[in-house]
C-alpha cells in the first residue's frame, strides 16, 4: 500500500506509539474497574483511546488520496527546543536538582520561567504580555493546585521558606 499523506501517516504513527506506551506504562499501577477505578485506569483508557485514534489516522493516510502527498516539511527546531526546554526548566524549578545543589524554586518561579522561555518560541516576544500571562497563570495555578486541590509541593523558593 502506498502512503498518500506523509503528514497524517507520521502523526498517526506517533499517536499510536505514544498511546500504546502510556497504556503499557499504566499496567504498572492498579487498574481497577469502571465502578472502582485504580490509579492506572485513566491513563490506560486514555492510552488506548490515543492508540486507536492514531491507528485510524494511519489508515486514512493510506486510503484517502491527497493532492500532493502532503510531504513533511522541515522541522521547526527553534519552537521545539524552546517548548521542550521550558518544560524541563519548570520541572527543575518545582523539584530542584539536589545532586547538583540546585534547590527547589517553587511553583510561582517555575510558572514565570516556563512562560518566559516558551514565549521565545514564537516570532514575536512582547514582555508586557508575557508578564501578564505569567501572572494570571501563576495565580490560577496557585488557586487550583494549592488552595482547591490541596496538593503538597513547594510554592516559593526553598531559601525563602526556611
Structure description:
The protein has 162 residues and is an all-alpha fold. The chain has helices at residues 6-26, 41-63, 77-95, 106-119, 127-148. The chain is extended, with a radius of gyration of 21 Å. The chain has 2 domains: 6-63; 77-160, no CATH class. The model has no long low-confidence stretch (mean pLDDT 90). This is Tripartite tricarboxylate transporter TctB family protein. Pfam families: TctB. Keywords: Membrane, Transmembrane, Transmembrane helix. Residues 10-154 form the DUF1468 domain. The chain crosses the membrane at residues 41-63, 75-94, 100-118, 130-153.
Average pLDDT over all residues = 90
Number of domains: 2
What fraction of the residues are assigned to beta strands by DSSP?
under 5%
- Ranges where pLDDT stays below 50 over 5 or more residues in a row are none
Largest sheet: none
Give the structural class: mainly alpha
Number of extended strands: 0
Rg result:
21 Å
Order of helices and strands: HHHHH
Please bin the fraction of helical residues: 55-70%
Q: How many H/I helices?
A: 5
Q: Roughly how many Å apart are the termini?
A: 64 Å
Coarse shape: extended
Write the layout of secondary structure elements.
Elements: H1 6-26, H2 41-63, H3 77-95, H4 106-119, H5 127-148
Amino acid at each position: 500500500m502506498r502512503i498518500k499523506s506523509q503528514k497524517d501517516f507520521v502523526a498517526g504513527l506517533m499517536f499510536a506509539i505514544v498511546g500504546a506506551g502510556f497504556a503499557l506504562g499504566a499496567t504498572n499501577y492498579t487498574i481497577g474497574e469502571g465502578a472502582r477505578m485504580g490509579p492506572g485506569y485513566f491513563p490506560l483508557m486514555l492510552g488506548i483511546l490515543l492508540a486507536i485514534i492514531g491507528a485510524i489516522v494511519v489508515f486514512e493516510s493510506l486510503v484517502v488520496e491527497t493532492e500532493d502527498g502532503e510531504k513533511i516539511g522541515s522541522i521547526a527546531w527553534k519552537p521545539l527546543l524552546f517548548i521542550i526546554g521550558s518544560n524541563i526548566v519548570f520541572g527543575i524549578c518545582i523539584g530542584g536538582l539536589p545532586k547538583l545543589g540546585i534547590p527547589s524554586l517553587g511553583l510561582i518561579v517555575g510558572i514565570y520561567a516556563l512562560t518566559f522561555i516558551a514565549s521565545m518560541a514564537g516570532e514575536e516576544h512582547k514582555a508586557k504580555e508575557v508578564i501578564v500571562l505569567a501572572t494570571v497563570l501563576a495565580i490560577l495555578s496557585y488557586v487550583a493546585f494549592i488552595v482547591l486541590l490541596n496538593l503538597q509541593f513547594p510554592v516559593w523558593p526553598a531559601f525563602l521558606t526556611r
